Amino acid sequence: MSTNPTTIKAEAGTPFVEVTRDFDATPAQLFRVQTDPDLVAQWLGPRNLEMRVEEYDVRPGGRYRYIHRDPDGAEYAFRGVFHSVEPETRVIQTFEWEGAPGEVCLERATYEKTDTGVRLHTQSVFPSVEARDAAVQSGMEYGIRDAMDRLAELLAGDRS
Amino acid sequence: MSTNPTTIKAEAGTPFVEVTRDFDATPAQLFRVQTDPDLVAQWLGPRNLEMRVEEYDVRPGGRYRYIHRDPDGAEYAFRGVFHSVEPETRVIQTFEWEGAPGEVCLERATYEKTDTGVRLHTQSVFPSVEARDAAVQSGMEYGIRDAMDRLAELLAGDRS
């Protein structure tokens, strides 16, 4: 469906997941939709889930928590803290699904200006290869592709 | 020198470092020396470095920063945020040496009560195998052993 696909790399035997996606937007526009709680609620996660952002305090030491709700009413909560926030350049934060407490990931998002827009590169580091594999097998890739497509749509709307 | 050595595991080809050490102390005593800034300054790092704790705010979202100073006056600053703090059980935090900005580790310390005291297990996850290898090659192991021995000495003094 998308002519500008998301690249997802999850090399076997490593605890890493890397995602790359180009957007037809400025770094400032991308940073805004990635950090404004009202906008985050419109793209972060698969389309079939309701999203509720409880807290999204984007500053070093700031905390976030959001809840996904599926059509059957089951809820999945995620939380973390921001380690560093360099607007339009790099954001580093922790990430924990409350269903697996203590299995915390470190996530790094970097913004790279390109000729036509901005390239988002994210790296997730899991606490074990097994935890990474379990996340990939649970449908993580589908969720990421959906989220990246929704982010592109939101940015397209933002320009209009 | 120590009859109760520190075990350090850094498996080749992984971004992990795991440290295990038994202490003749209670989980409460260990948690105190690991979280009270005045006590942290007395053990966290090799003996030959001066230690200055600028901030050590042990709560979810709390920040920390400390500086090591070598005999020649060179300073090395480290910083991070606490993701979760479960007293006497588990602490998860980020860790960054300011000399390599953006190369952030995730650290998890867990406390396990044993017949004779408490076992501390820490896991550090680096953002790449290369970053982990560079840290190990820079003398990380020496610093860890020194710190764990100093921690044991501090706990021994704490009991007297």
TrEMBL record, chains A, B:
<protein>
    <submittedName>
        <fullName>SRPBCC family protein</fullName>
    </submittedName>
</protein>
<comment type="similarity">
    <text>Belongs to the AHA1 family.</text>
</comment>
<dbReference type="InterPro" id="IPR013538">
    <property type="entry name" value="ASHA1/2-like_C"/>
</dbReference>
<dbReference type="Pfam" id="PF08327">
    <property type="entry name" value="AHSA1"/>
</dbReference>
<dbReference type="InterPro" id="IPR023393">
    <property type="entry name" value="START-like_dom_sf"/>
</dbReference>
<feature type="domain" description="Activator of Hsp90 ATPase homologue 1/2-like C-terminal">
    <location>
        <begin position="24"/>
        <end position="155"/>
    </location>
</feature>
